[in-house]
Amino acid sequence: MLKNSDICLSVRSVDKDKTAEAALSLMRALHPTRIEWSYVSDREVIARFREIAPVFVATLNTIFPSGHAQSFTGEPIIAPWMIGLGRPGERRTYICQNNPDDLRIRIDQATSFIADGIADCFQFDDWYCNMQMLEFGKPCFCDHCMREFATELGISIDYRRYLRGRGFTHAVEVLRAAEHEAVPLWDDYRRFQQRTVTRFFRAKDAHSWRSRPARGFCGCTVSFAGSPGWKIFVSSTWRPNAVYARR
Ligand SMILES: [Zn+2]
To answer: What is the CA(209)–ligand 1 centre distance, in A?
Structure first.
């Protein structure tokens, strides 16, 4: 895990503008001990990084590749801060942590890094995905969520259909009414989505760690100081599943 003496450098990506050579030049100047929050997947580039910084923390996230979360009205869910990025129709959509395909893709990403001996541990950006969607006003109502929620409640219910039957036509209306405790089962639904985050990481751990020696996942990092093209930061690492397991 992170030591007080570590020097962390985030090299989010390399491309024709922010080249691997430029990143390496920066690394030679800074002598980082860890490359964190990096979406670089080119094994040759990573191997060169690790000649300078021995620890490479690979990053997984909720939008690459795009996922299958679905809004109350049936559209794919895009984070508010991603709506302006890219062309319409090409924007990255959120995963749903109840969707087995979305889980499988992240497990495959992690196991590939582990099998290649590249990553010592992983960062999962926007790790509390299903709760985060709820917090930015676009809770997931996909078929997987509806099925899992009914299973958790132990009753036969399609919660989206149920809410529509009570006159709700949009998530905004649901969330406004929820502020006044006027949405049946809403507290249960919130707790269900909290537990979804825990289940997702437990399932991910169970699958990914069969091919150790990866160490674990951490949540997002904090406290940034800018540098041209990349970020140098003080990292705060913690295990989201451990936090959620206490709830
Ligand atoms: Zn869902």
So the answer is: 25
109, 207 contact by CB (below 8 A): no
Compute the distance from residue 128 Cα to the ligand 1 centre, in Å: 13
CA distance 56 to 46: 8
Q: DSSP per residue over 167-222, as a string? A: T--SHHHHHHHHHTT-STTHHHHHHHHHHHHHHHHHHHHHHHGGG-----EE----
Give the best-scoring range by mean pLDDT among 63-67, 162-166, 216-220: 162-166
CA of 173 to the centre of ligand 1 (A): 19
Q: Dihedral, CA atoms, 27, 32, 36, 41, nearest 10 degrees? A: 40
Cis peptide before 65 (omega within 30 of 0): yes
H helix runs in 60-185, sequence order: 100-115, 129-135, 143-153, 159-165, 171-179
Distance 119 CA to ligand 1 centre (A): 29
Task: Give the pTM.
Answer: 0.81
pLDDT exceeds 60 at position 2: yes
